[in-house]
Amino acid sequence: MMTAVSRKNKYTCRQGKLVDAEEIHILMQQAFADYAKKDDGEKVINSALREELEAVKADLNRNTVLVLSDGDQIIASLRLEEISEKRYLLKRFAVSPDYQNQGLGTMLFQQAVDKLKNLDAHYLQLYSSLEDKKLISFYRGLGFNCLETDHSKGYERGLWVKTIK
């Protein structure tokens, strides 16, 4: 278990457990509610909002799932899936709306990078909406570069890659 400390609060980062599945599932619904909202107000229902509880449990069993807690409440989570040798996919990266814009996503992400370094990973990639300028800025700030874009999910999204070493 790792402890992350902000100016005011103490947060705990740890590996997710099966008993966390329902809380992580609820967090996903809350955090992704406005994801990929278009400028005209149209909302795209993405795969995170359609994700079933069983898929969360499957990730907890097969992949690295990190959670950040404030006391007993999970306030952020992310998942790391090895997709080929030394290459990982970051998915379902979410921070509770009540805790956003406080540096907690960055804090959790740094714990994930440390974990990936221990796993001798070389690359981390993710897919994200390109219609949210704040999200684009966030991923660029974490060291990701957008390599390609597509519209296959009903909105413009990018494939972002970060070198880990």
UniProtKB/TrEMBL annotation:
Q: Does the keyword Translocase apply?
A: no
MF GO annotations:
acyltransferase activity, transferring groups other than amino-acyl groups
Domain N-acetyltransferase, by residue range, is: 11-165
Which keywords fit this entry according to its UniProt record?
Acyltransferase, Transferase
Which PROSITE patterns does the UniProt entry name for this protein?
A: GNAT (PS51186)
Q: Which Pfam families match?
A: Acetyltransf_1
Q: Which CDD domains match?
A: NAT_SF
Which Gene3D superfamilies does the protein's record reference? 3.40.630.30
Q: Which domain of life is it from?
A: Bacteria
Look up keyword ATP-binding and say if it applies: no
**Name of the protein:** Acetyltransferase (GNAT) domain-containing protein
Which species is listed as the source?
Answer: Halanaerobium kushneri
